[in-house]
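Can't paste images in this forum, so I'm doing it all in text. The chain is below; anyone willing to post the predicted structure tokens underneath?
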Amino acid sequence: MTIRLGFLTHVQGRGDLAQAYRDAQELFVVADELGFDVGWVAQHHLPIHGGGLSSPWTFLAHAAARTRRIRLATAITILPLEHPVRLAEDVAVVDALSGGRVEIGVGSGSGPQEYAAFGADFERRRELTTEHFAVLRRALAGEEVGTPGFTIQPPIAGDFTDRVWQGVFSATGARYAAEAGANLLLNRATYGYDEPTDQIQRGWADAYLQAWDGPHQPRIGLSRFVFPARDKREALTQIEEGVLRATANFVSRGTFPSGQTLEEYLRRFHAFYGHPDEIVAAFQQERVLPLATDLITQFNPGIPELGAAIRALELIATEVAPALGWKPQPSAD
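Text version of the structure:
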């Protein structure tokens, strides 16, 4: 199976929020022109430094109108805080507008404040994810949901089964995703472990594949913090501020130890940064990449300027990803 190349944005920027949204749309256009296979957005109901996207399907509808071939996806939509039938309707509308280019990744989200804002029980987040996921899958399959005789409109064209993803943070979660017949999304890094991220996640990926018994070939989406530049110094000028802000937040929550060097914190973020050759060499040691069907690159927690972000996308598409075996699909024109 040929690896697909993706780009994930948390919709952050150095200006106001409206500008961050516009800049993120530009990145979708650039990624589309460069041949990226999938553009992903992350949903955040609470603000994160420099932005955060609360309504991903509105954003993706606009991106659908500005792009031609790139697929449009979420990593993730916070499923317990969505009505699964309404969510399925949003997915169906964007899928119709985009010509069948939509995929959806779901998960349980992050913290209790989001759940309180929506009147949901944070302690039941895993149960709610499972319940809502089952309804969402039935709705996207064109089955009756909610009440006899009701199906979503517009109906999804074709089989949506292999376009559904679930984000997980444990081997148990990976097995649940496999049992649900969902593709697997792995986060950019694991937190709360001293062992390297790829060592931990390789076990999760193995557990997923061992549990898989679905009707289609399973997919594993590997999200990684990747920022190529002329060298590490130039990369750090663009990503250091965002990394330090994120690090301070993680330290305050007890997720990261205090008093570590920037290099150590970048290791904990499992970051790939610097010259493209350095990044390729690091990826050749990546334990999960051999099992991945999708490489999903992101700049978060770095918040580069728009021009630097565009240049990084260009380097990923022309130097990093091809060296890892990716080939852009022929233009639809």
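The first strand starts at residue 4 and ends at 9. The mean pLDDT is 96.
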